[in-house]
Specification:
D-Maltodextrin-Binding Protein, domain 2, glycosyltransferase activity, alpha/beta, EC 2.4.2.17, 3 domains, cytoplasm, binds magnesium ion, binds 1-O-pyrophosphono-5-O-phosphono-alpha-D-ribofuranose, binds adenosine-5'-triphosphate, ATP phosphoribosyltransferase
Length: 282
């Protein structure tokens, strides 16, 4: 059985379970279950702290897991990301009181940096050639400056609300852009069920990002129309009873759908319909 690590708590837990459910896997009904068998799909799920997942996967005890890119890099475990999952997006940044390090990362030399991601921060500082003291805290690091434990913090920033409330401003460029990723041990073999899991998750990503667009098009406008909706391989063009028209079907990115409908209308397409995709395998 393929052994899969899934976040048991925190920001990644609910969207990870939703994605696996959408991919046809069983998921727990009770948030306290720690292990769940899905014999129909040949998979066993282990619900673990997202911070620990790369460690289990890197050790080879579990085959694959869902965690954040920031947590993967912080762990230093011998695991690599194999698929971006499109949720849990955040940036990882330095922040401080205004006036502390306005010149950016180069101004952090000699300062104390509090973070719950010491591995990630130490590596970034070393690469930037900056010598600063890294102080490891478990969370709520924004408060550490006010309490005199640190001069600077490095933390996850999503909306920026927490930083603003603490009166902090970002320092320098983002250290990292993170999102939820599927991780696997570096150099792992081909476990049964692994390729199927990846294909199913890719299918969910495509079904979420794409819609199906159908329209009727005058024959003389087909070239212009299919240039607007080229699809993945090639759009389906079917004859209609009226020989002057054809029907076209193609997948298009969901976020572009309205603009593409305007463009199609301009070249003469009519009866333009958009339908959600519930599942797919490309
Ligand atoms: N607003 C957010 N706050 C924290 N982590 C976030 C946020 N948005 C996305 N993430 C991502 O979630 C992962 C952290 O998850 P984790 O469960 O450890 O922390 P959490 O969501 O802060 O939960 P908790 O603090 O309750 O443990 C990281 O990969 C991080 O980039
Ligand atoms: O930019 P924002 O949208 O405000 O989100 C970022 C904040 O959310 C997380 O904290 P969390 O609530 O998980 O508390 P923690 O620091 O104790 O983990 C993170 O550590 C930041 O503090
Ligand atoms: Mg947190």
């Amino acid at each position: 059985m393929l052994r899969v690590a899934v976040p048991n708590k925190g920001s990644l837990s609910e969207p990870a379970a939703a994605m696996l459910r959408e991919a046809g896997y069983r998921q727990r009904g009770d948030g306290r279950e720690l292990v769940l068998q899905d014999p129909d799909n040949g998979v066993e799920f282990f619900f673990l702290r997202p911070r620990d997942i790369a460690v289990y996967v890197g050790s080879g005890r579990l085959d694959v897991g869902i965690t954040g890119r920031d947590l993967l890099l912080d762990s230093g475990a011998p695991a690599e990301e194999v698929l971006e999952l499109g949720f849990g997006g955040s940036t990882f940044r330095f922040a401080a009181l205004p006036g502390t390090a306005d010149a950016g990362v180069s101004a952090l030399g000699g300062l104390r940096v509090a973070t719950s991601f010491p591995g990630l921060v130490a590596k970034h500082l070393a690469e930037a050639g900056v010598s600063a003291e890294v102080i490891r805290l478990d969370g709520a690091v924004e408060t550490s400056i006010q309490l005199g434990v640190a001069d600077v913090i490095a933390d996850v920033v999503e909306t920026g609300t927490t930083l603003r409330q603490a009166g902090l401003v970002v320092v320098g460029d983002p250290i990292l852009r993170s999102e939820a990723v599927l991780v696997r041990r570096i150099g792992a073999g081909a476990e049964a069920g692994y390729e199927q899991l990846v294909r199913r998750l890719q299918g969910v990503l495509v079904a979420r990002r794409y819609v199906l667009m159908d329209y009727d098009c005058p024959v003389e406008a087909v070239e212009a129309a299919v240039a607007i909706t080229p699809g993945f391989e090639s759009p389906t063009v079917s004859p209609l009873r009226d020989k002057a028209w054809v029907a076209v079907r193609a997948m298009v990115p969901k976020r572009d759908a309205q603009r593409l409908m305007d463009d199609l209308w301009e070249v003469g397409a009519r009866a333009i319909l958009v339908t959600d995709i519930h599942a797919c395998r490309l």
